Amino acid sequence: MNLPIQTNFLYSPKRFNRERSTIIYLERGKTEIYIEEILMCKGEGNYTFVHYKNGEKHLFSKTLKQFCELFEAYDFLRISRSVLINLKYLKAFNTVEELSVIMINEQKIDIARRRKAQFQDTIRKFSKK
């Protein structure tokens, strides 16, 4: 697939600190999530699938909005109504023609038109880090 890529962020295989984790409390207990291993979150109504960089995914009975609030201090960005991505695993993006991102697992995800300006702003800040 030949997309005109505006900017390319390559995945850096540096070691992440596994101590940066968060605990999500569910109705029947708690689940520990290592934030550095989350690739993206996809909302499905009142549930959210958390996709990890190793290909696994888990279903949580929390909304995507709750995950956005939980991960707001980290490098996550909501790019559409149902998708929250980890910017550290962003491989490439296109904001010229079809508004999309490509993650390190080669998955292409569309960016909502209304979130384009916020996406570009966040990418500028993120690339300066």
From TrEMBL:
The species this protein was found in: Arcicella rosea
Checking Pfam families in the record gives: LytTR (PF04397)
The organism sits in which domain of life? Bacteria
Q: Where is the HTH LytTR-type domain?
A: 35-125
Question: What GO terms are given for molecular function?
Answer: DNA binding; phosphorelay response regulator activity
Q: What is this protein called?
A: Two-component system LytT family response regulator
